[in-house]
What we know:
Number of helices: 6
Strand content: 35-45%
Radius of gyration: 23 Å
Shape: globular
Strand order of the largest sheet: 30-31-32-33-1-4-3-2-34
Number of strands: 34
Amino acid sequence: MVAQSSSTSKVNVKNFSRSTLGEFDAPVIEGSWPENLSGYVFIVAPYHREKERHLFAGEGVIIKWDLKSDNGKIKVYSKRLKTWDSVWHKILPIYNLSKGFFPAVISPLGVSEIANTAIVNMNGRLILTADAGRYWEVDPVTLDTITPIGYFDEHVVSVPLSFFPMVANTAHPLVDPKTKQLITCELKSKPNPGDLFTDMISAVYITTWDGEGTLKHWELEGTVLEGSPHSAIVTEKCIMIPDMPFQMGLAMLLGVKIPPLKAYPKTQIYIVDRDELKPDQETVPSRLVTFDGDSYHFLCNYHHIDGNIHLVGIQQATISLTEALRPDDVKHFSGEKYDKDYYGIPWMFGFDPGVLRKVVIQDTQVISEETFVHPGWFTTTLFTADPREFLAEKGYSALYQVYAGYYQQFICRRQYLSFRDSKNRVLRDDQLPQQDLPSVLAKIPLDTNWQELTEQIKQEQEQNPDTHVCDLGKGLLDFYVYPVGSILNSIQFIPQNQGYLLTTVLTPDSLEAWLFTADNISNGPIAKIRLPDKVTFGFSLHSDYFEEVTPAPRTYKVNRLESDLRSIMVVPWEFLFNQRKDIFNRK
């Protein structure tokens, strides 16, 4: 058994609620904020409109943290993204066809554009992204919404719905440091012929944008995704598109309680050589690489080492971010019904330890694979790394990983039944913890043999049964265990001096941000700041660091009226009649 006594922690689920907008002073309540710290961290969070219950539904809220201390206070700015569909939702009483428990809001006007998942620093321009909908540009100084990226008929539309058709893409594009282009992917979806309502499949397109002109697309030959990419993994030589278990079908989109088919229980990645992306070509070949585990995020070296791709898959076998707690759900471990404050929280807390998998790929083969598993660190979520190492020839030296913890009250019976037989589970049911386990922030060196590291911690556990399971490995790794009930949320590396880590924390009483030095996490935060009691940003997501901010150039802007007209006239024709030349010959 991982733990002996049974107990659950009090987590303030109201901290997950709607974001507060405005300008705030966050005082330093503990420790000392470095006087020489400067720059800005941008974090994005969802903003719930009325009747939106899913935690990741709602347009993005941009949160800007000015890292320069002013008399012991940090200035925090927050403003809501104003996508154009929100105007219609405000004017008209739009019926949410997805019943409020799916991240995307489906209405007769189409699919809402949320751009609430990740931040991209595109050569000083601030871009908000999500896994569905166009990307949106925001002024990094004023946080004003400027424009969506592209007219709908410039995109590869997944489903042609009314004014706002669905554009399924990835929340994690990459801006190439050499070409300065934004590299992403887009999907053209259709129901799976054998399972019309429970599953969808998608053709895949690599998409690039130079920041000013029309988007350029290349279709991957013979490539069909069953899930969602969530990331475009880019190196100096290739672009990789993962097929990940973010599955959806027509039933899920419409809120019908029919689950999608089970995802393939391994990580699948399609690799495209960048020199194949010729301007006069419409399609490109891809090769498929497969390795064990359910990967949701990736850390990848930009440069190949000895001609090989080096990446890390962040894996978790027992979660689903498209499913959420509903009024008819019960807590798996107690059988109790949920209070309404829990409704809409995704299945994002796993009942299995998180797995990190280090993989080396040569051509179409995985030539090296190592996994790191800590028996007390559950729910791998967000991560960060030192951006100064992005272009280093030897690649990243370490991964800074968030483990959100193990909280029995968030694991419902449906979640357990969906994943109890997963082939990727680490623990058997009789090995599950009998008490909640806290969040952990850990620095995992990449030059260490992870198999040996895992075995050393396992041996330490056997030899020291009285040591708390989360504290195992203190002589091997640099990590910090958060108080039980305080959930570690967003994380960002600040590339100054020895490096700092800014983490947001949902405590039982307040929303705080804790600052660590990257070379000594185990000593705990060097400073804590607390937002006012009236302020919350909900469960915030990904982030990025800007050394300085300047007003957006505003040389690129999509016209709203023209966008609406083109979406209802051009998009259906292209989609329904499959006019490939319309996609590839755009001017």
